[in-house]
Every structure is written in C-alpha cells, then in structure tokens.
Amino acid sequence: MSEINVTPLVDVMLVLLIIFMITAPVLAHKIQVDLPQPNVNNPPPTNPLDPIHLKIDQAGALYWNDTPVDELGLKAQLAVIAQQSNQPEIQIAAADGVAYEHVARVLADAKSYNLVKIGFTEDF
C-alpha cells in the first residue's frame, strides 16, 4: 500500500479546531484590574538616602559599609537608623556558603527595631 492514511491527521486537526474554538472567546475576554494609583499628596523624596551595605561573610562576620562590626555594634547601628524619620534601605549581601542562622539573626534584629526597608543583593 503506497498511500498515506490521513484519517489520524484529520482527527487531530478536528480536535485542535474544537480546542481553539472553545478557548478563543476566553482569551478575548477583558479583565478589569485595579492598579494602585500614585499618591500626588506625598511625592517620592527627591534626595533618597544612600543605602547601607551589610555584608555577611562565610564565617558569619558582619561588615557595615565595609567596616567590621560585631552583633552588639550592629544592634547599635540599627537602633540609630530606627530613630530616623526617613530610614535608609539596608542591603544585605550574604556569602554563598553562609549559614542561614546568621542571616536570620540579622533579619530578626532588624525586625525588632521595626525596620522595613531591607533588600538583598548579590554583591559580595
């Protein structure tokens, strides 16, 4: 028999046609999304503060803007930042092999001083 059997091909094409006929109206349906609007009463600050770079090396040692600091010194620095009305962002950079315990301790200390501007970077 030298002819190609096209029956399976026609079956597959009809199934695909039915699927597209069912899904096409769903894709054309518009969804109303309420996006947050910018607050014109409080414009963003024109002079944002420089972020604070907090590094945690593999052994768990802390560096506040490239200056070594112990845990008590870190808590003192966090207390100073907590007193400011416009708090700078704290950018935490942890080494690849650092234990999660060290990062969790820093985050817990920041939370205890009600600091909310915390970010993570890969610059180590």
TrEMBL record:
Keyword annotations for this protein, in alphabetical order, are:
Cell inner membrane, Cell membrane, Membrane, Protein transport, Transmembrane, Transmembrane helix, Transport
Q: Which Pfam families match?
A: ExbD
Where is the signal peptide, in residue numbers?
none
The record's subcellular locations are: Cell inner membrane; Cell membrane
The UniProt entry, under InterPro entries, shows: ExbD (IPR003400)
Entries under Gene3D superfamilies matching the protein: 3.30.420.270
Q: Tell me what topology the record assigns in the membrane.
A: Single-pass type II membrane protein
Q: Which GO terms describe its molecular function?
A: transmembrane transporter activity
Task: List all membrane-crossing ranges.
Answer: 6-28
GO biological process, any: protein transport
**One of the record's GO cellular component terms:** plasma membrane
Query: Subunit arrangement?
Result: The accessory proteins ExbB and ExbD seem to form a complex with TonB.
Task of the protein:
Involved in the TonB-dependent energy-dependent transport of various receptor-bound substrates.
Similarity section: Belongs to the ExbD/TolR family.
Its recorded name reads Biopolymer transport protein
Task: Provide the taxonomic classification.
Answer: Bacteria, Pseudomonadati, Pseudomonadota, Gammaproteobacteria, Lysobacterales
